[in-house]
Amino acid sequence: MSEQSVVRFDVEDGIGVITVDYPPVNALGPGVSDGIIAALEKGEADPNVRAMVLMGAGRTFIAGADIRQFGKPRAVPAKRTYDVLDQGKKPVVAAIHGYALGGGLENALACHYRVAVPSAKVGLPEVQIGILPGGGGTQRLPRIVGPKVALDMIVSGRHVPADEAKTRGIIDDIIPGKDLRKEAIAWAKGIADKRPLPRVRDRSERLAEVKTDPGMFDTARKQYARRMRGQPAPEKCIQAVEAACTQPFDEGIATERRLFGELENSPEAKALRYAFFAEREIARIPGLPKDLKLPEIKTMAVVGAGTMGGGIAMSFADAGMPVKLVDASKEVLERGIGRIRDNYATSVKRGSLTQEEMDKRISLITPVETMEEIGDCDAVIEAVFERMDVKKDVFKELDRVMKPDALLFTNTSALDIDQIAAVTSRPEKVAGTHYFVPANVMKLFEVVNASKTAPETLAAAMKLGRDIGKISGYAGNCDGFAANRSRIPFTMEQNLMVEEGALPHQIDKVMEDFGYPVGPFKVNDMSGLDISYDTRKRRKAADPNYRMLPIPDGLVEAGRVGLKAGKGWYRYEKGDRTPHVDPEVEALIKKVATENNITQRSFTNEEILHRLLFGSINEFCKILEEGKAVRASDLDVMWLHGFGFPRYRGGLMFWGDTLGAREIYNQIAAWHQRYGARWKPSELLRRTAEANGKLAELKADKLR
Ligand code: T1G
Asked: What's the CA-to-centroid distance between 259 and ligand 1, angstroms?
């Protein structure tokens, strides 16, 4: 689309209509701002034009600046749309549908009036990509909603629905939206002759709020400190809003622009931009025909009403999709439904869900006691006990009861899906849909492609995940698939370093300083040490060479199974979740080390960090080599949404590139010499190091 045509201007009934048409989301890409300025000047100069409307073509208003342009050299624009709007003599109405975000809302705030359709959302989400509103948003928004609400909107970056935006005065009116253009023109005609023109920059009455609560900026600093740890943008957002309350408008704009410049190329902003596009790229599976006819999934069933099955059923009800929940045992089914009710009730108590919404979601979940009753569903997800024989029995049953074109998905986290599919007459309709705990919360939805899975089934599963608000990621069928498999070296090194002398709280501190909300040993205590202990026991039973972990095994055998027992890696006071370092654990560690003739030593924090993360970088490369994942950035997205990897570091491979593939390869090669086979460097990593290539740009050459 040539720069000229990304903005259209036409006049209807004395109203100049400026339409931004720059798919997919009318971002302020090349030519858009200039196009808006040209249209505004045309309208100003045209005597037949009494007022103007600014709107977006397609599915949305302007979704902000073009994020792809950041970090690239850009000419300083001679004019800015915001200033041209401010200097205008004719009223301009922003007509908002879809999203008005970032520079989109900033343009709307520079217009004289704003109207929106009921489903519209507005916001200044720049902080989520490591920057701040750079088009006057930090100066104009506080003048409308007051500094306190502006702080909340700008530091959280949340999207505000139209009704709340109306209540807060961000938009002047809600229009039906049946015919946006027509309704906006009518609205503009209604105000065309009103003078003086209401410019937001001239308003200051709401800024006085700061006099009654001068401490609001420090309150915001405290409020957001924990959530925004390690990120420079929130503090600068607060400083910019503070400037709106202490400086004249144009000086405030200059302050905003300076602060923006300090953030645009920060490491955190680059990492958050990488994460933004990686989360969109993960939806694409190379080689999948674009015109595939996908089987429609409108009704779901879930087999197994345990913790996982219940969470999975909630994930569908939360997305408004009817779901049947079946379990062989009436008692387990009732307990499962009870647990779902409790979860929703907790959300209602916390105020994150209304009672009405809870009732609606519960009504979408139908408990049934027989498999026959789910036969008419479009697809089913099996979430029963993680044992192959149990899974096979269930899939034989599903193949018998489910309608012929129904899709059969399994939530197994590691078992061979080819074996499961082989017991059915429709292996092409079988795939893995792997959730992470808690299933109704974690966004990652790992879609596992088995050797007989049809492209339609794979694509339908990927779409299903997106339809319920998850991030669907492709994985090949292998032990642990992509996400869990890439995590195994992390968990192994976590435990081996403790045998060698590093202490759990030291390792936890390193990872919390790195940006994790909670260290790995505390996470283990929360999820229960007995779960992974049982998995190790099963693996040992299946493979005598499987290496047990004597220290966590010893903890479990000593009854220290974690938070639920008041002791695990840490000790906990009754009714309190605060972890306390426990000398008993250190004593057990020393005892196991002595019994296993392990010489203990001290560790630097850097060694701990690299031992934990380099192994998984190496495994990422092996997974890509084997074609069990599409691209490195997918695995990064899986760690962001499956394992809580700190978002402002972009992802594991993106972070790896801040050190360089060569340094990582050399270290791994050295550990290979020292520790043996588990550190055998991936061939792909060696080649990338040699070529000084980027880890985050690695892709599988062929999916297998
Ligand atoms: N720039 C470039 N591309 C964008 C984009 C943007 N701002 N927003 C979306 N896309 C692409 C996206 O990569 C995808 O591409 C397609 O559009 C659909 O997006 C001066 C400095 C609007 C809520 O942060 O939050 O303004 O993968 O899959 O789920 O102060 O996109 O199809 O090739 O996400 O319906 C501030 C970012 C910028 C908004 C729609 N704005 N976008 O969600 O679709 S900074 C934002 C979103 C700024 C000013 C500053 C979402 C959405 P592709 P999608 P969606």
From this structure: 22
